[in-house]
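Methods — Computational structure assignment.
A single polypeptide chain was analysed. Its primary sequence is given first, followed by the predicted tertiary structure written as structure tokens.
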Amino acid sequence: MSYGYGIGDFLAVSKLAWDVYTAYKGAPEDFSNISDEIKSLHIIVDGHKDQFWEKTLNSDKQTQLQEILQGCANVLGDLDELHTKYMRLGSDQGSSSKTIERIKWTQENIAELRARLTSNTTLLNTFIAR
């Protein structure tokens, strides 16, 4: 994303959220539980993009909004990467050690990503409410 904020930033985060939501929606249960939270972020970003198109923010608020949007993009990118790695680990179904590795790896990573997703969604919601 560029310096400052613009409608393109909202569109990019909204599209990324939708793409990641779509991937998680059809995923195994380990992942599908987080899809509703991803969809919530998408709804918030998509629903408020027009509000900021016409709004003039001072430079501090612009920086804050850009940092929040970047945080959203970062966690969505990490969720997308996790899904890709998980699906790659799952492609070798014959190995029980791979299955154990996959379960352990997922449980360790999904909790941290869920917390980051919730935090970024809350930050954006709070910023919008001000």
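Note: The longest helix spans residues 96-129.
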